[in-house]
Amino acid sequence: MQPFRLRRLPGLQDYLPTLEAMRSFTDGRDEDTPDELWLLEHPPVFTLGQAGRREHLLDPGDIPVVQVDRGGQVTYHGPGQLIAYLMLDLRRFGVGVKRLVSLLEQSVIELLASYGIEAARRTDAPGVYVSGAKIASLGLRVRNGCCYHGLALNVSMDLEPFRRINPCGYAGLPMTQVSNFVSGISVTEAGGALANAMGLALNRQPAQQPGRPHAS
To answer: How far is Cα 108 from Cα 90, in angstroms, rounded to an integer?
Structure first.
């Protein structure tokens, strides 16, 4: 099976153009299009998934709110958080969404274990947790047998905006991050380690690609 293309997008990538790029890539691909993994950071933004209810937006203030087409409720993205967007042909890969979510969670758990952080999944709420506090969130969309969106790992960020929402629809859900346990881990370093962990979990090797992604 061919490796997936790894793209690191520099700086802070605005949410809406990135969302449109994911949709365009997914709509323009065919059975021979290589799968891709995009690593990036967003400026501050709340995203409300397909199941999202506005009552979970407690006090967004000056942070924009974007309605999106992924699964799940409301979450926050901001600087210091690693975003990993996976564009994968599920038919070619031969897995369903539930199994893919499990593999992505496992890749984060393995990454955190390499830093000496003991993490686990929860059966009642997708994501990865450390001592009951959420450190990584997941949300996917499947269109024509291909997925996009992905996961967000809190590395070293301002967690205050999470207090303005009910994260993932859970009132009072505590949030945590890598820097609370291990100092000196950058988003770039965590991204490389996560790409390798995802490669092992998916039995695919990442192949670095330069520049911004194209629609097709």
So the answer is: 20
Q: State the pLDDT at residue 168.
A: 86
Which residues make up each annotated binding site for substrate?
70-77, 137-139, 150-152
Q: Are the C-beta atoms of residues 143 and 26 closer than 8 Å to each other?
A: yes
CB-count burial class (<10 Å; 0-12, 13-18, 19+) for 126: buried
Domains and CATH numbers, the chain: 4-209 (3.30.930.10)
Alpha-carbon Rg for the chain, nearest whole angstrom, is 16
Mean pLDDT value across the chain: 92
How far apart, in Å, are the Cα atoms of 39 and each of 52, 58, 62, 95, 141?
Answer: 25, 29, 26, 22, 17
Q: Pick the catalytic residue: 48, 168, 175, 201?
A: 168
56: amino acid identity, one letter? H
| Phi, psi torsion values for 161, nearest 5 degrees | -60, -25
pLDDT in tens, 70-102: 988 899 999 999 999 999 999 999 999 999 999
Those residues with Cβ within 8 angstroms of residue 55's Cβ, 6 or more apart along the chain or in another chain: none
SS3 label, residue 72:
coil
Q: What are the backbone dihedrals phi and psi of residue 130, each rounded to the nearest 5 degrees, phi first?
A: -125, 115
Distance CA 88, CA 149 (A): 10
Q: Which amino acid belongs to residue 91?
A: R
Mark whether 147 is an active-site residue.
Answer: no
CA–CA dist 34, 95 (Å, integer): 16
